[in-house]
Amino acid sequence: METLTIEFQPNIKAKILELLSSFSSDELKIVPERATFEEEKRMLQSRIDKINDGTAVYSTFEELDILLETTISKYED
Q: Does pTM surpass 0.90?
């Protein structure tokens, strides 16, 4: 399947949904956009920028393992 993002005026939403409802669920699936998409996009771009400019901080496998074990043990009981 392919994904297409459409921006439209609220007053035509009913017409668009009526048109889309003529397709079967095998042909078309309406996926609601996440409300935090733009926020996540900015956060990921910020991380990419840090990687590209050399300011990203990396963890070793051992450091990650300790962090995960600590986090898991907090919620085990």
A: no
